[in-house]
Amino acid sequence: MRIVLGVTGGIAAYKAALLLRLMTEDGHEVHVVPTDSALKFVGKPTWEALSGRPVYNDTFEAVEDVNHVLQGRRADVVVLAPATANSIAKAAAGLAEDLLGNILLTATVPVVMAPAMHTEMWENPATKANVATLRTRGVHVIEPAVGRLTGVDTGKGRFPEPEDIWAQTQQIVAETQTGDQLAGRSVVVSAGGTREALDPVRYLGNRSSGKQGVALAKAAAAQGARVTLIAGAMDVQAPTHPNITVVRIESTRDLLDAVLEHAQHQDALIMAAAVADFRPATATNEKIKKHDDATAPTIVLEQTEDVLRTSIEQRAAGQPLPRVIVGFAAETGDETTSPLEYGRAKLQRKGCEILVVNEVGIGKVFGQDDNDVTILFANSHEEVSVRGSKDVVAKAIIEQVAAALA
């Protein structure tokens, strides 16, 4: 999940660092956006060290990325903690005086605010009206805690405990993501990379992390589907979800066997796994040894099974395989042909209903948290381009699968 953590100028800003730690320890990508006032309490080095990411707070920073718009679009949730009386008032008025204000105006995802202020501020009619306004717009304003405030004051307005904020935020996101577009449907998703053995310790593989496939499985389950996740080698953990069953595989042959077995009588098959297109023609049962003369063995490669094409051919031959099959094309361009053009040709060649095309390379897609894809359709449906976190891309793909099934 991609989170924007907005921090405003209150003494409770130091507790937002603890909230940030909870988010990152759960494996989420967090972008901290402090106000100038917040930086008087906790400096940029602290936020950058805890998040592992650069920290921007000025609208005119990273302008080449249109940062003031993209942050709100790419996030899965925006959390304002602490939310001071001043920041709540600005948000209610729609002011965009800094980067955080711009993000709040452009966010189309859940926005969660955790207030922290003196009791008199919280109970002031102006603050009450601002909170009411924000709630009518769909902003989730958490009730502040009761307890010790700054100085000797005690009352309502205390910053909620970071654990409580994080728990409520996760619940809000889960409720927002849960839908019924795929209720009663069954979906098979493949994820990760396949590995082709050379000897007992070496293999030929690829750079796939499994992040996009896992995001697709979670997005399908969130829409009510029963999901079978066929997982190859992955850098991320398989999701724990009551609607997701995980099947482990290693080689491309394993993947093909698992698809032909588990995709029967299912509604959709999403082939997000990155297949090793080649394997050693022969694999030894003993480790290949190095020699003192520095010579290296000659390794002859052969093509692996074409899982996507075979699935479509088996369906055409009468096997009860899904009527909606989604392929992926991880492409690089050349002097004459763009990745998208290669993708369009692959869609015609393979015969699947939907093909997701992305340009890959060093530092692109594989292992990254973001993706930039174009969704192609066999039925001449207009192409759909999606850019953002892999969760955002997964949601867009699942929406197209649901539409195709409907």
TrEMBL record:
Pathway: Cofactor biosynthesis; coenzyme A biosynthesis; CoA from (R)-pantothenate: step 2/5; Cofactor biosynthesis; coenzyme A biosynthesis; CoA from (R)-pantothenate: step 3/5. It comes from the Bacteria. Residues 1-186 are annotated as: Phosphopantothenoylcysteine decarboxylase. GO terms for molecular function: FMN binding; metal ion binding; phosphopantothenate--cysteine ligase activity; phosphopantothenoylcysteine decarboxylase activity. One of its GO terms (cellular component) is phosphopantothenoylcysteine decarboxylase complex. Residues 1-170 form the Flavoprotein domain. Keywords: Decarboxylase, Flavoprotein, FMN, Ligase, Lyase, Magnesium, Metal-binding, Multifunctional enzyme. It catalyses: (R)-4'-phosphopantothenate + L-cysteine + CTP = N-[(R)-4-phosphopantothenoyl]-L-cysteine + CMP + diphosphate + H(+); N-[(R)-4-phosphopantothenoyl]-L-cysteine + H(+) = (R)-4'-phosphopantetheine + CO2. Its EC number is 4.1.1.36, 6.3.2.5. GO terms for biological process: coenzyme A biosynthetic process; pantothenate catabolic process. Binds 1 FMN per subunit. CTP binds at residues 277, 287, 328, 346, 350. Residues 182-403 form the DNA/pantothenate metabolism flavoprotein C-terminal domain. NCBIfam families: coaBC_dfp (TIGR00521). Catalyzes two sequential steps in the biosynthesis of coenzyme A. In the first step cysteine is conjugated to 4'-phosphopantothenate to form 4-phosphopantothenoylcysteine. In the second step the latter compound is decarboxylated to form 4'-phosphopantotheine. This is Coenzyme A biosynthesis bifunctional protein CoaBC.
